[in-house]
Design a protein that fits this description.
With 1482 residues, the chain is of the alpha+beta class. Helix content is 46%, strand content 19%. It contains 23 helices and 49 strands. Helix 9 crosses helix 13, helix 13 runs antiparallel to helix 15 and helix 15 packs antiparallel against helix 19. It is extended, with a radius of gyration of 58 Å.
């Protein structure tokens, strides 16, 4: 169980609350003597929107609907088949809703809980009932700007509400009243508040922020907020010593907090906040200044001349990339700044030069470390930059030299853009065949020391003596195992003879720079915090700072013994370096002391990133005070260089621009011409690009895109093909009967067959088993009937003929079974010739096995029905194939006739569609090749080898040649030839007409035969369609029966699951009952033992009281009496009362006591007994020995009384504990009884479900009529009768109804006239009353004096103004009198207050005296009770007398009540007889 917060109830230590982001639980602690019992209760949280979910009982649901048709409705756990403990909490996914997420909680004086939620809701939970209430938030008219309070981080209770803190650094006051709350600002803190706590007297509030700072807020007339503890803002990003490193050092956090610390006691001297994310820090060796690099690309220069008030003196905005490295050389001449984009900037470290930016050089992007060598006797500074090449698995070293006079000749060493010239700074490149995590340059500049990142070795590399060009590969010449795991970092001391290594293991090692051997080491940090992040050593080598990576600690180390030649060398170099830097330091520090603080908006750099994003999206200018500050130095240099180049090449640029414009114009014309071309000749837009490199790049990109698209298409096609194969296998290949359809030729009618899969061997085996079982049952039934008939005395003749007629009886049975009415079978399956003799009656399906066998037989019937229809469908399909072939054959002749007759008619040729032959969609067929021989025959001779009779229509008799001449010039021979020609033409035309008519008759005959045959097929297909509908009806009927049986089986399984769950639940409850019974028994035994001890202590106390006088019998009786009074006297222990000033502030008041408080009270009591045991309290004349013995006896008595009180309290506690256990035991017993009751109900439901079967009956359509769809679902008393009886009865009812309607219409007309007359009479009566009322109102009209005055007075407004003035004067006089009375009352109240204080003092004095008198009275009363036994007898007699009187009084009362009861019974009998109906014979 995850717990984020745990708190005890301040008013009840036996109650505590545990909360997490998902749950809230309230735990109760019950105690019995020394045993403690913890009991948890979960709080039901609301939904995320604040509403409550009405959760039903999963184990015993009460609101489940009742289904009268399909059986009982069971819980979801039973439907899911759960029978274990998971069924008690099962809820489906759709029923799970997100709840509120608590963040913090606090207790109230009423033992309630306030819960703050992540969604912004505030909840109130009752501590006893755990009822949750969502408080309503009262929105203000002007909501709080600049922040949005979402969820409280911490809560503390105060009067009338709570104090809550958010993530915005504010403390809010929640004023809660009547189920709603209002938020007000209470306090503003610099950082988000994580914890708050009130002091016991509620006068101070302790506040802790997220970074660890602690504040105390003191309430009062003038509240005070004091900072008790100031913590740094996060882990230290960087550390460094302030030169020379003997007094102060500086730290930097990521948020930009720079601190100056005193070295001796590590106390914070001062702070400065940059308010921007910072990365690195370095202190200048030549002045009291430091440089801080930020993520925005700026470097802040901070003056620490006055350590108590550091200030920013300069800001250099180098680039827009973050600063990762800031390194000063050993003499403080240059500052090297490395950025994330791979640029190293060189800055003048002297403040007198205003930190001049000299230039930059480009290196690899991933800069790991920058190392410098700046010796006293040289005039150059050697710089080495280590970069990583992760892709190649190598490291690169780049070295260059900077002259000390570089700042004076910077223009010659840099180009126009500020880049340092490589040839002037002697830049060389080196590479290593492995990666380094750190590298430093030796002071002799002849070798490099590196820390390998992948292997635990420290290597040395010799630099080449000769100059080289390009990249030089360095090989290690010395290798030493580091004995440190994880990537490490190397550092050199100020004199260069100490090599210091740190690593992830947290060990700091000091090595000799020549041998690389370790001579000193220290484990400063743990490897669990990822070791050491950085370290710094002072110039004299005596002070060392080590910063942890993730543990948030900074360790300051000093040498235990610092001497020898190593110490002499470093101290000598330290003295030389101080002498060398003394003049520079004096000059620069003097300049820093006179440099004013730069007024820089320190928050601006943190906003540069946001401003940059905004300027990229819009071209609006940023309104800033100084635009140059927002442009990095490298961009300024670039802009200046561009301006110079523009001025230098302005003419050339103009010429190039003109050429570009002309070329672009030409290209635009070419593009316009290209748009007018066809798509096949059109060029792409990319072809007109003149940038060949861009074209090639675009071409490569397009090729990559095409390849990618091809691959995607291939994968898409592969997935589609796989899906198609799956569908084909499932819907086509696996089908024994493929699904297909048949269409009619002339009408839109489609008939589909039933696609069927082949039955598996398991299904056939199961069917065979069921059929065999049914046959066996039939044989058994037959044998039983034979036995019964034999036992009933059947004649011998019948017995002889029984064997002969056995087969006939079986056939009769089958016929009888198959001829049962369809409405009893529940389907029309017999219409398809299916044998239903093996089916069980629907009224006999009670067992699970019978239902399963019935389902198997019904599936077989469905299969047979579909098979029967498919056989008919196949016959029709073959018939259609025959009809299409016959039509195709006849269409050959039809086409010939149409061609001969030269008709423009289309020949109707029926074909199979894809739905009729679906296999065609799965196979792609090649087109048949052209028959060349047939084609040649068609070309040469029209497709025939001889002239047929059909060619007579195309025959033409050629005209004689002389017909071209005029008729007058013809000869006789020519005229005879013309007559023969006309005769032949006439004969040919007659033959043509005769043949045409014969062709037309044949065409009509063929078309009619095609029409008749296809229509006959359509009629057959229509009948097949009806058969298909009937087969589908039968299939649906059988499937409906199967579904009903499957549902009954499923419900049977649900009932069994529910029964198993209840049995398991009952067994768990019985185990729990045994545990609770044992707990009750044990608690009762413990109580009896404890009570026995209590009785013994009480008896001892009484014995001590009674034996007091016997113990002191040797002294006189009057001294015994005095001692007994002192024996009964107890010291007064004043109770600690809260201060009057804080009683109204502390909300919890007096809290309940605990064991420790009881012990303290007893110790205080015994201390007060010492005063009573003082010798000064001894009576006069008493022996001191007797007094000492008396004191010991009294102390024993007091101790015994305290034990009795403690035992009494424990006894009450144990009794309450026993009562709780008894209640729990009774509750478990009730649960068990409830489970038993539920099991009985479930068994009744199960029996009722098994007996109440759902049967399927076929009713003829149109025989049942219902009005308004009011379907009756309960047929407990329904019977099936003949419809003729109902129709006759309906006709009689209809005749009688018409007669009754006629008589009712006559009566209706009479009553209608009567109502009209009565209504007119009432109308006239009401009009008369209205007229009388109006006359009375006119007579009694009221006319006041004010109305008369308004009508009679001419100047009514002036009169009203005069009256108003008089009233104002009266009010002023009354107000003045009231103020005087108030002053008098205040004076009187002051006097009464003084008098009341005096009375309080007097009352207090009297109460003290009263206590003493009461003690004396009680002592005397005890003495009297002990002395007088006579009074006891009188008391007993008096009690007996009172009991007798009370008994007599009760007897009289019972007699009176008996008489009253008899009177009331007589009255009841009379009233009952009065209400009986009078049965009088008519």
């Amino acid at each position: 169980m995850d717990v984020d917060q745990m708190s005890f109830n301040p008013m009840n230590w036996r109650q505590l609350c545990l909360s997490s982001p998902s749950t809230v639980s309230v735990w109760t602690i019950e105690r019995s003597n020394q045993e403690h019992y913890f009991k948890a209760r979960l709080v039901k949280l609301p939904l995320e929107d604040g509403s409550f979910f009405n959760e039903t009982d999963v184990v015993f649901p009460q609101s489940l609907p009742k289904d009268l048709i399909y059986g009982p409705v069971l819980p979801l756990s039973a439907i899911a088949g759960l029978v274990g403990e998971e069924a008690e909490t099962f809820r489906p996914k759709d029923d799970l809703y997100p709840l509120l997420h608590p963040t913090m909680h606090c207790w109230t004086p009423t033992s309630d809980l306030y819960i703050g939620c992540e969604e912004g809701h505030l909840l109130v939970i009752n501590g006893d009932t755990l009822k949750v209430t969502v408080l309503n938030k009262i929105e203000e008219e002007s909501p709080l700007d600049r922040r949005n309070f979402i969820s409280p981080v911490t809560l503390v209770y105060q009067n009338e509400g709570v104090l809550a803190s958010g993530i915005d650094g504010f403390v809010y006051s929640f004023i809660i009243k009547d189920g709603s709350y209002m938020i007000e600002d209470f306090l503003e803190i610099e950082r988000p508040v994580e914890h708050m706590m009130f002091s016991p007297n509620y006068t101070m509030l302790l506040i802790q922020t997220d970074k660890g700072s602690v504040y105390i807020y003191t309430f009062g007339e003038k509240p005070i907020l004091n900072k008790v503890l100031d913590a740094c803002d996060g882990n230290f990003q960087a550390i460094d010593f302030i030169t020379p490193g003997t007094q102060h050092f500086m730290t930097l956090t990521h948020s930009g907090e720079v601190c100056v610390w005193w070295l001796e006691d590590c106390a914070c001297v001062s702070k400065i906040y940059l308010n921007t994310p910072a990365t690195v820090l370095a202190c200048c060796p030549s002045s009291f200044s430091a440089a801080v690099g930020t993520e925005s690309g700026s470097v802040y220069f901070i003056s620490v001349y006055n350590e108590e008030s550091p200030q920013v003196v300069h800001e250099a905005f180098l680039s827009e990339s973050s600063v990762q490295h800031v390194v000063y050389d050993q003499r403080g001449i240059f500052l090297l700044v490395g950025t994330s984009e791979g640029k190293v900037f060189v800055v003048n470290a002297n403040s007198s030069s205003s930190f001049q930016i000299i230039g930059f050089t480009e290196v690899a992007k991933d800069i790991v470390q920058i190392s410098t060598v700046s010796l006293l006797e040289t005039d150059t500074v050697q710089v080495m930059v280590l970069s990583s090449l992760p892709e190649a698995g190598r490291s690169r070293l780049e070295m260059f030299t900077l002259p000390t006079l570089l700042s004076q000749v910077s223009t010659t060493f840099t180009d126009e853009r500020g880049r340092l010239k490589d040839e002037l700074i002697h830049k060389y490149l080196y590479e290593l065949e492995h990666t380094l995590s750190s590298a430093v340059l030796d002071f002799q500049s002849k070798q490099i020391h590196g820390f390998c990142s992948q292997v635990p070795y420290i290597c040395s590399y010799l630099l080449p003596k000769k100059e080289h060009i390009g990249i030089y590969i360095l090989k290690p010449y010395q290798k030493v195992q580091s004995r440190q795991y994880g990537p490490g970092i190397l550092y050199l001391s100020s004199h260069g003879l100490l090599l210091i290594t740190i690593a992830k293991c947290g060990i700091l090692c000091f090595r000799d720079v020549y041998t690389l051997e370790t001579f000193a080491w220290c484990r400063s940090h743990s490897h669990q915090g990822h070791g050491i992040q950085s370290m710094r050593i002072s110039m004299d080598g005596q002070n060392i700072l080590v910063n942890g990576r993730d543990d948030g600690t900074l360790v300051y180390l000093k040498w235990k013994r610092f001497g020898g030649h190593l110490a002499n060398d470093i101290l000598d170099y330290y003295q030389k370096l101080l002498i060398f830097l003394s003049s520079t330091m004096d000059k620069e520090n003097d300049y820093l002391s006179r440099t004013p603080k730069v007024s820089i908006d320190l928050a601006s750099n943190s906003e540069r990133t946001k401003q940059k994003a905004s300027t990229d999206s819009s071209q609006d200018e940023l309104v800033l005070t100084d635009v140059k500050k927002e442009i990095p130095w490298i961009q300024q240099k670039s802009q200046e260089a561009i301006k110079k180049e523009v001025n230098l090449f302005s003419k050339k640029r103009k010429e190039i621009k003109k050429g570009i414009k002309a070329l672009s114009k030409t290209i635009l014309n070419m593009m316009e011409e290209n748009d007018k071309l066809e798509n096949i000749a059109k060029l792409d837009q990319q072809e007109f690009g003149l940038d060949l490199e861009a074209l090639e790049r675009l071409h490569d990109e397009s090729q990559e895109e095409v390849a990618k698209m091809k691959k995607d298409v291939e994968m898409h096609n592969l997935a589609k093909n796989y899906l198609a194969e799956l569908i084909k296998e499932e819907c086509w290949n696996s089908m024994a009967v493929k699904g297909r359809a048949l269409k009619c030729f002339h009408i839109p009618c489609v008939v589909e067959n039933f696609p069927m899969k082949a039955r598996t061997a398991e299904e056939l085996k199961e069917l065979e088993r069921v059929l065999q079982q049914k046959k066996t049952e039939a044989e058994c039934l037959k044998l039983r009937k034979e036995i019964v008939e034999a036992q009933s005395g059947v004649t011998l003749v019948k017995k002889c003929h029984e064997e002969d007629d056995e087969e006939e009886e079986e056939e009769d049975k089958k016929v009888e079974c198959s001829n049962l009415p369809n409405y009893l079978l529940g389907s029309l399956s017999t219409d398809f010739g299916v044998d239903t003799s093996f089916l069980s009656s629907q009224l006999e399906l009670h067992s699970r096995e019978e239902k399963i066998n019935q389902i198997i037989l019904l599936k077989d019937i469905i299969y047979k029905v579909k098979t029967a229809f498919n056989n008919e469908f196949d016959a029709a399909y073959k018939q259609k194939e025959f009809e299409i072939a016959r039509v195709k054959e006849r269409n050959v002749r039809v086409r010939e006739i149409i061609l001969d007759l030269e008709l423009e008619e289309a020949v109707w040729q029926p074909e199979f569609e894809d739905c009729e032959k679906p296999e065609r969609t799965l196979v792609v067929r090649d087109e048949e090749g052209t028959n060349t021989r047939l084609q040649a025959l068609m070309d040469m001779m029209g497709g025939v080898l001889e002239v047929k009779k059909e060619d007579i229509l195309r025959m033409v008799i050629p005209q004689p040649a002389f017909m071209a001449k005029p008729d007058a010039v013809w000869t006789e021979e020519e005229r005879k030839q013309f007559k023969d020609y006309e005769k032949k033409v006439k004969e040919l035309n007659e033959e043509r007409d005769k043949y045409r008519k014969s062709l037309e008759a044949e065409l009509k005959k063929l078309q009619n035969s095609i029409q008749e045959s296809t229509q006959a097929f359509d009629e057959h297909l229509k009948r097949l369609f009806e058969r298909r509908v009937k087969a589908e009806m039968v299939t649906n009927q059988e499937e409906l029966k199967i579904n009903n049986l499957v549902f009954s089986l499923l419900l049977d399984e649900e009932l069994s699951s529910r029964e198993k769950f209840l049995n398991n639940y009952l067994s768990r409850k019985q185990q729990e009952k045994s545990q609770t019974s044992e707990a009750v028994q044990k608690s009762r035994e413990d109580l009896d033992v404890y009570k026995e001890h209590y009785d013994n202590l009480l008896a001892e106390d009484k014995v001590m009281d009674r034996s007091f006088k016997k113990e002191f019998a040797e002294i006189p009786s009057h001294q015994v009496d005095i001692l007994y009074k002192l024996f009964k006297r107890r010291p007064r222990i004043p109770k600690q009362k809260m201060h009057s000033d804080t009683t109204h502030v502390v909300p919890f008041g007096e809290r309940p006591g605990s064991g420790k408080l009881n012990k303290d009270a007893f110790a205080q009591l015994m201390k007060a007994m010492d005063e009573l045991d003082n010798i000064s309290s001894m009576p006069e004349g008493l022996d001191p020995l007797v007094w000492n013995r008396f004191c010991m006896t009294r102390r024993a008595k007091v101790e015994n009384e305290q034990k009795v009180k403690q035992k009494a309290a424990g006894l009450l506690e144990m009794a309450a504990f026993l009562q709780k256990r008894v209640e729990e035991d009774e509750k478990v017993q009730q649960e068990i009884e409830r489970v038993f009751h539920e099991l009985i109900l479930l068994q009744d439901e199960k029996v009722r479900f098994q007996l109440n079967l759902t049967i399927q009956i076929l009713l003829k359509q149109g025989q049942v009529e219902l009005e308004n769809f009011q379907l009756v679902l309960e047929y407990a008393d329904a019977i099936l009768i003949n419809k003729n009886i109902i129709e006759d009865l309906n006709s009689v009812i209809r005749t009688q109804g018409q007669k009754k309607i006629a008589s009712m219409m006559e009566s209706k007309d009479v009553h209608k006239r009567i109502f009209q007359i009565e209504w007119e009479h009432k109308k006239m009566e009401m009009e008369r009353e209205d007229l009388n009322q109006k006359a009375w109102d006119i007579q009694m009209l009221f006319f006041s004096r004010d109305r008369q005055k308004f009508l009679n007075e001419p100047n009514y407004e002036a009169l009203i103004s005069i009256q108003i003035g008089i009233m104002e004067q009266t009010i002023a006089v009354i107000d003045k009198t009231h103020k005087k009375n108030v002053e008098n009352c205040k004076k009187l109240l002051k006097k009464l207050g003084k008098v009341s204080n005096q009375k309080d003092i007097a009352n207090y004095t009297l109460s003290c005296n009263l206590r003493e008198e009461l003690v004396a009275v009680s002592e005397r009363k005890d003495i009297c009770n002990a002395m007088g036994s006579k009074l006891t007898c009188e008391k007993i007699a008096k009690e007996r007398y009172e009991n007798m009187m009370q008994q007599q009084k009760l007897t009289n009362i019972s007699k009176q009540q008996a008489e009253e009861i008899s009177v009331l019974q007589a009255e009841v009998e009379r009233l009952r007889m009065k209400t009986f109906p009078a049965l009088v014979q008519m």
